[in-house]
Design a protein that fits this description.
The complex is a heterodimer of chains A (about 600) and B (about 350).
Chain A (H helix, E strand, L loop, with lengths): L4 E2 L1 E9 L4 H14 L4 E6 L8 E9 L10 E6 L5 H6 L1 E10 L14 E5 L1 H8 L3 H19 L4 H11 L4 H21 L6 E2 L10 E4 H11 L4 E4 L6 H14 L11 E4 L3 H13 L4 E5 L1 H6 L1 H10 L3 E7 L16 H5 L9 E3 L4 H18 L2 E7 H4 L2 E4 L18 H5 L31 E2 L14 H19 L6 E3 L7 E5 L4 H13 L5 E4 L2 E2 L3 H8 L3 E6 L5 H10 L6 E5 L8 H15 L4 H5 L1
Parallel strand pairs in A: 1-8, 2-5, 5-6, 6-7, 10-11, 10-12, 12-13, 13-15, 14-15, 19-20, 19-22, 22-23
Antiparallel strand pairs in A: 2-4, 3-4, 9-16, 14-21, 18-20
Chain B lengths: L37 H15 L7 E5 L3 H4 L9 E4 L5 H11 L4 E7 H7 L1 H10 L3 E7 L2 E2 L5 E2 L22 H8 L3 E6 L3 H13 L3 E7 L15 H7 E3 L1 E6 L14 E5 L5 E6 L9 H13 L3 E8 L6 H5 L11 H4 L2 H11 L2
Parallel strand pairs in B: 1-2, 1-3, 3-4, 4-8, 7-8, 9-13
Antiparallel strand pairs in B: 5-6, 7-13, 10-12, 11-12
């Protein structure tokens, strides 16, 4: 039986990289949003510029589920290279849209799906002579065909094309024409609409649609970052590029036309973090954007910044593994390498945003935290939220907010005779005062080193002075626990002995999984960890439950290790739920993994069964 | 080295500069380097140069990497902020500091291990970008703190203290700086303060990437027969192309040298250099000729010193990036935050 579903299905486009499909696919997703129906699109792309397979998956969810679902209800198969696998991945009862210009043997199809052929190449060849046009408009033509098959509001698509080509009448007309070529052909020749349908809704509300990388970059603009140094690496490059774009619009002085920012594409990640640390030392708000391999390269500098107590912000858009290939897939694999980055005894502040809205919010406050705590602050995005458009609440800013520049001793304070010791804990919170270079002609200068110094920054190799400093750094880390974003707890409808901890991009899949589990009568309390060091509520949440699942997108249960280590928890009580094949975690995966485990725990005693 | 604490009092009639400071105001902590180390002479020359230029010490940021040379910023300009950073990474730290506050004077102190080996890339890229700084390499051809290994500037064939010959080609940092776009390039010798002090002064005043390579013999590990960085070898093979008098400001220049031997060089910031030519054919504005001249003399085992190149028009990274005049580190939410109205517009464009 063909699948029948309104506003709830997954459609996947199998394309060839570099064929111009991306903008057509995005047009398709946005058009559905304009119909008031939530969508969650995801790019699955190769490490390649042209020629290799790439997929674009659109999950349509009237209920607003934004996590990956898994499975494909309809495949738009435009890539012969991946045809067999693409056909095999369609759910039973699903649909296939393909280019029927060239006849295909029956063995290439399946009996249990609805096969819809549109002669896309033939239509293009008839209509266009330019090869590039033939390729580009083919994509718009299939969007047109889909609009008829899925019963989309074509006016919304036309409106979007109009916005995209505002002032470019010719391009607008050409695209609109291509759209109708496909739509008209489908209307005339195909049964429509099919079982998958779209119906206008109002489930989108005032939410916005953007990528986490762009949001984090905007957070850096609002948070007052002036220096950015970076080295290109997927999937973080678009963050630095978005910062450049935002700054050119929002940060150019209107009178002088000069820039209130400095962006350097450095020679490598070492130089990037070096520039950030130099700028932070000198009192500017500075950041770098990188991914796992960049974090590895920055380790030495990060240790120096920790010991020398220099503010720095590092946006790490996580991906899978080293070198080329899997790195264009998503993972949460840099938790340990960031939390404990570098040589010596080091611990760092790490933030875990769940979506673009938090990427913006945390992106801005990370600069306050770095200045307040005088230390590197990591913000861990991942490819899933960084490089995909995600529906989220509108970005908000409170105009009464001022930047927290932390404890900076001024020239006036020095002249008034305030005792200045660069590493002196005057307030008991472990955070000393610092001075910016050039503050005062005779007072407040100091020599910055890694470790070998006393409370007044004087050189010493004495063990006691070293230990004294290390203890103060621990006090400072304790102070951080109450400054970083707190975990958010959501309790099950019924009291339960089980809990689940999760973080970052896992959020939407987790929320959906909870609903699935509840439908099966399995209840869990949820805690979304948003930062390291852990707030005391993490330990108490674990204490309140017999077992706590820790859901992560890595192999080694890195967050779980961090909790065990930092909160002194018996590892037996933390059950890892791990997803790490490079695809985004799904609700189905979480619900199955947790559900199976809970079922195993609830084996009914034999005595009860027989009685 | 000495453990004696330096007394603060000084002779009441010590000469004072335009700010009323004596050279004592430009000193730092007592050096912990070996007695007779060339680096200490460079420290003394930096002190002298800053004193003579009447620089306010706190307006200097002194940044170094790791190594003997990188320790020296602690030994001059006590009232300046200093940063002993990561091995080979002074250039990036200094670049960031410079971006944060373009109003300070940036003095980068490094060594040949720091800049020609582990930090070769950062040195090169810093020159390429034209960071407004004075980059001083205290070049002794040897790793001192780790006890005598060759560095990348050691000449092929030169012998270590243990008598082993170096088989690797030497990196000529001056040549690299010239090639990569440094707008002020000089080489000197720690044993020739008369030549070195004016060079440092001119380098500081130059608004762009200034590179000064100072051959600085290591008395502990590289001052023996067979070394090409020993005091004796450098004295015997020193080929100075010019001698520099540095004059700041617009005052008329009086020079006592024979006519035709003096060239006055006006820097674009208004300062003037009087150059006493020792080699009449050497043109300090000809970058390509300088590179060729250096190569020819190096092939003969000679060490060319003096002001080797100064660009007629220098530019710097801030110019390339078109940054505002006010230091970025002085800006706050008023200057930097676009506010909620702008954000509402952005939200509206994302629906």
């Amino acid at each position: 039986m063909p699948i029948e579903s309104v506003n709830d299905f997954v459609i996947r486009f199998a394309n060839v990289n570099g064929s111009g499909s991306a903008s057509a696919n995005e047009l398709f997703a946005r058009s559905i949003l304009r119909m008031g129906i939530p969508v969650a699109p995801r790019n699955i792309f190769p490490s390649n510029i042209q020629g290799l397979p790439t997929w674009y998956e659109v999950r349509v969810s009237g209920d607003g589920h934004l996590g990956a679902r898994g499975g494909t209800d309809m495949m738009v198969a435009m890539n012969p290279q991946t045809w067999d696998k693409d056909i095999a991945s369609i759910e039973p009862g699903g649909y296939l849209l393909y280019d029927s210009t060239k006849p295909m043997p029956k063995s290439k199809f399946r009996d249990d799906i609805t096969v819809i052929g549109v002669p896309l190449t033939a239509i293009c060849n008839r209509e266009y002579t330019d090869p590039r046009q033939r390729q580009l408009f083919k994509n718009i033509i299939y969007v047109g065909a889909l609009s008829a098959l899925l019963d989309m509001d074509v006016a919304e698509i036309e409106k979007l094309i109009g916005e995209q080509y505002k002032g470019k009448e010719k391009l607008f007309d050409a695209n609109k024409h291509a759209l109708h070529l496909g739509r008209d052909w489908a209307t005339l020749n195909l049964d429509h609409p099919i079982g998958l349908r779209l119906q206008r809704s109002n489930a989108v509300g005032d939410r916005i649609f953007l990528e986490g990388n762009a949001a984090a970059a905007l957070g850096a603009v609002y948070g007052g970052a002036t220096v950015c140094a970076w080295y290109p690496i997927t999937p973080s490059s678009s963050l630095a590029e978005a910062f450049t774009r935002h700054c050119s619009r929002l940060r150019v002085d209107t009178d002088s036309k000069k820039n209130k920012f400095a962006i350097v594409q450095a020679e490598d990640e070492l130089a990037s973090i070096g520039i950030v640390i130099g700028a932070g030392w000198n009192g500017a708000r500075a950041f770098t954007a990188t991914s796992g391999p960049g974090i590895s390269l920055m380790q030495e500098f990060l240790g120096l910044a920790y010991f020398a107590e220099i503010p720095a912000v590092v946006f790490d858009v996580q991906r899978a593994g080293p070198s080329t290939g899997m790195p264009t897939r998503t993972q949460q694999t840099d938790i340990i390498s960031c939390a404990y980055a570098s040589h010596g005894d080091t611990k760092h502040v790490v933030l875990f945003p769940e979506d673009p809205a938090e990427c913006f919010e945390f992106g801005a406050i990370s600069f306050d935290l770095a200045d307040r705590l005088q230390t590197p602050v990591f913000m861990l995005l991942d490819l899933d939220i960084g490089m995909n458009h995600r529906l989220c609440r509108p970005l908000a800013w409170d105009d009464t907010k001022t930047y927290d520049r932390g404890k900076v001793m001024t020239s006036a304070m020095l002249d008034a005779g305030t005792d200045f010791g660069r590493y002196l804990d005057v307030d008991g919170d472990g955070i000393p005062y610092r001075t910016y270079p050039g503050t005062n002609p005779t007072k407040g200068s100091f020599f910055t080193r890694g470790t070998s110094r006393d409370r007044y920054a004087r050189y010493t190799e004495e063990g006691a002075a070293y230990q004294d400093n290390m203890q103060r750094l621990l006090r400072k880390f304790d102070t951080a626990k109450d400054l970083v974003p707190r975990p958010l707890q959501a309790n099950a409808a019924k009291p339960t002995k089980y809990g689940v901890i999760y973080f970052g991009s896992t959020s939407p899949a987790m929320d959906e999984a909870i609903q699935m589990l509840e439908a099966r009568g399995q209840h869990l309390d949820r805690l979304r960890v948003r930062a390291f060091p852990f707030h005391s509520s993490v330990a108490s949440f674990i204490a309140d439950h017999d077992f706590v699942f820790v859901v992560e997108q890595n192999r080694d249960a890195q967050l779980r290790s961090l909790i065990v280590n930092e909160c002194g928890i018996d590892p037996v009580r933390l059950v890892p739920v791990l997803h790490y094949d490079g695809t985004p975690i799904t609700a189905r995966f979480i619900a199955r993994a947790i559900g199976d485990h809970l079922d195993a725990l609830k084996v009914t005693p034999l005595r009860k069964v027989v009685s | 080295m000495t453990y004696v604490v330096k007394p603060k009092f000084h002779h009441p009639e010590l000469p004072k500069n335009a700010l009323g400071y004596t050279h004592r105001d430009y000193e730092g902590k007592i050096s912990t380097l070996c007695a007779g180390c060339g680096h200490d002479s460079i420290t003394a020359s930096i002190i002298e140069a800053c004193f003579e230029l009447s620089i306010e010490p706190h307006k200097v940021a002194k940044i170094s990497g790791i190594g003997c040379s990188s320790k020296t910023p602690d030994y001059f300009l006590n009232a300046s902020h200093g940063f002993n950073s990561v091995h080979g990474r002074m250039p990036s730290v200094l670049t960031g500091a410079n971006l944060a506050n373009r109003d300070l004077i940036y003095l980068g102190v490094s060594g040949d291990g720091d800049s020609a080996s582990i930090g070769f890339g950062q040195f090169a890229h810093c020159m390429r970008r034209g960071v407004n700084m004075t980059y001083i390499v205290e070049n002794n051809g040897v790793y001192g703190l780790t006890k005598g290994q060759f560095s990348a500037t050691a000449d092929r064939g030169s012998k270590s203290k243990r008598g082993v010959a170096n088989t690797d080609s030497a990196i000529d940092m001056v040549g690299i700086a010239l090639q990569l776009g440094a707008t002020f390039v000089a080489r000197s010798f720690s044993g020739d303060k008369k030549q070195l002090v004016p060079l440092i002064k001119a380098a500081i005043e130059h608004e762009g990437a200034s590179f000064v390579d100072v051959i600085s013999p290591c008395v502990a590990f590289n001052n023996h027969t067979g070394s090409t960085k020993s005091f004796d070898y450098v004295r015997e093979h020193n080929e100075a192309v010019n001698f520099l008098d540095f004059m700041t400001g617009q005052a008329p220049i009086h020079v006592d040298y024979a006519p035709g031997t003096v060239e006055t060089v006006q820097q674009h910031d208004g300062t003037t250099i009087a150059l006493r030519k020792l080699n009449s054919e050497y043109d300090v504005h000809d970058r390509l000729a300088a590179m060729s001249f250096l190569q020819h003399h190096a092939a003969k085992g000679q060490i060319v010193t003096g002001l080797l190149y100064v660009a007629e028009e220098a530019e710097d990274l801030h110019g390339h990036l078109n940054t505002v005049e006010a230091p970025l580190n002085t800006m706050n939410e008023k200057e930097l935050c676009p506010g909620s109205a702008a954000l509402d517009k952005i939200n509206a464009s994302l629906r």
